Structure formats: structure tokens, C-alpha cells
Amino acid sequence: MKTAFYKYIFSIFALFLIASCSERTADKPVSDDYVNADLLINATDLLSAMESGSELIIIDTRTSFEAFSEAHIPGAIYFHSRRDLNDPDVGINSYLVAGEVFEEKMRALGINNDSRVVLYDEGNSLGAARLFYALEYYGFNGYASLLNGGFAAWIQADLPVDSALVNGIDISTSIGNFTALIREERQCDIAYVTGIEPGSNKIIFDVRSRDEFEGTDVRAARGGHIPGAVNLEWSEVLEDGDVNFFKSHTEIQALYDSLGVTRDKEIIPHCHTNVRGSHAYFTLRLMGYDSVKPFEGSWAEYGNATDVPVQ
Fold it and tell me: φ and ψ at 97, to 5 degrees?
């Protein structure tokens, strides 16, 4: 009799576990152990904020306007961050637009200096993080966060969507008052990275692929990496699977610690065009790193220069 009872209790417990795990997979909660956990929001918390009437500006930064037109988070405004943040007048691929141009673009989205902004993309956070970095570099004083897992997480959680094909496109009804003010501590140039002495408290953090870092995948005049740089591909901080949630604080910290990327250092992330570098910037900020100074020119500038050392 006792055996049958325990089997029954175990079966109920097992069903509870399965249901709980299924729910977490559909909408992984943002872990409170991130130092700056407020920089991430999960799908159901975003929906709750929307339903509560919170004043939010939700920006869809996916690369496909067609995908946005077919389905997007209700009320979202479209902004192609990996295209519309690029300055065509700078001879470096994907270099960030000037402050006055960025200011105009953000005002057109209705962003004020103190707005609450939520950014999302397909799911890997590349597009969202690029806009996040631009906002922080140009002195945004409001609240910006990324949707953990992006639109893929929203869909997996089976949350409502709008279609521009049916309901039209949401646009800002008013011009924002955002004012760009460069925060110089959040960016550096090629002269800065070439002036770093060995053994200093500065870490050049190359987040390109291993093949790019080692010079077997050459995307500029020269391959290789900046002497003394450490390498961790940007996507290593994300979970594998249908939805690319950020790994836990503990997992990411272990990756950083293994490379000497510690909080007492100034961290200089970069990639080829600083899009992946912006993803690393966001992750470092999420983890509570205060001194993060991306190299905006990245390898598109460094690898095409002839008077700098390459390893």
C-alpha cells in the first residue's frame, strides 16, 4: 500500500517538474544574480509591463522589415540598427553615425532623455545590443533593456503579435527630446589600442571567431589579432537551442575569469565592425563591469592599417 502511495506521489512530482521545466524553456526568467539584471527583461515580464499601461518604447531591430511586417510585438517600432546606425561618410565599415545624426534618428522614434526603452531582435541580441551601445555612448539617461531571447523567446512563450499587413505600422506620434552627449569613456580609437603597454590594467577583448583571431579567416588586408588580445567568441555567452537566452551569471563569469577579464581591468571589446563588440559591451555591462571602452573601428580599421603590429 505504501509503495503504491509513494509511486503516486512521485508521478505527481515528476509531472510538476516536467511542467515547470517546460515553462522555463518557453520563457526563461532573468536571473537576479546578474549585477545589472535590470538590463534584461523576459517575455512575460514585458507583456505584464505593457498590460499595466507602463510608458514603453519597444523597438524591433531585426534585419528583415518583411519579418516585422508579418509579425512583431504589439506596439513595436521598427529600426534596422545594423544598417541605420552606419555612417556612410566614414571609410570604415559599419562605423557609428555622428551624434547629431543619431540624435535625429532617436527623436524620430519618440525617444526622450528619460524614456523607458525595450530593444529586441531575432534572438541573438546582436541588433538590440548595437542600439543599446549607441544609446549609452551618446549619453542616454533613461532606461534601456534587452528582451532576453528576442522575438524567438516571445514566440516560444506564445505571446500575442501584431501584423503590419493587417493593422498597419506603429509609428511614433511625437518627436522625442533626446539629446546626444558623447561619453568619451565608452569608446576608444586605434591610437589608444596601439598605445597599450604589456602588463597594463587594460584588456583588449577580441570577440571574433577563433579563425578570425588566428588569421585563417581573413576579412581585411591583414589577418590575425592585436598583440596581447584575448579571444572569446561573442556567442559563447548565449545558450544553444531554439532561443538564445543569455547564460547564467556564474557561467559567463567563469568564461571571463578564464581569460583574465576581471572587474579591476579596463575592458576593450571589439570584433570586425563592433557589432559583435557591442554585444560584448552589453554583456559586460549586464555583468557589472564599469570600465568598458569599445574600439569602434575594430578590425575593419586595424586590419587595414599598414603601420600597426599584428600578431
Answer: -60, 160
Residues 142 and 198 in one domain: no
Asked whether residue 146 falls in the same domain as residue 195, the answer is no
Q: Residue 226 sits in which domain range?
A: 185-302
Q: What CA–CA distance (Å, rounded) separates 290 from 272? A: 23
Question: Residues near 5 by Cβ (< 8 Å), separated by ≥ 6?
Answer: none
CATH number at residue 59: 3.40.250.10
The answer on 136 and 219 residing in a single domain is no
Contact (CB, 8 A) for 158 and 26: yes
Tens digit of pLDDT for each residue in 240-292? 999 999 999 999 999 999 999 999 999 999 999 999 999 999 999 999 999 99
Residues 161 and 205 in one domain: no
Residue at 4 is within a domain: no
Asked if residues 263 and 288 have their Cβ atoms less than 8 Å apart, the reply is: yes
Element (H, E) at 117: strand 116-120
Strand partners, 162: 72
Percentages helix, strand, coil for the chain (3-state, rounded to 5) are: 40, 15, 45
**Is residue 105 one of the residues assigned to a domain?**
yes
The domain tally of the chain equals 2
Using only C-alpha atoms, the chain has a radius of gyration, in whole angstroms, of 21
Full-model pTM: 0.89
Task: Report yes or no on 179 lying in a domain.
Answer: no
pLDDT digits 0-9 by tens, 130-143: 999 999 999 999 99
Distance CA 158, CA 2 (A): 41
d(CA 50, CA 170): 15
Closest of 141, 154, 153, 6 to residue 75, by C-alpha: 154
φ/ψ of 89, rounded to 5, equals -95, -5
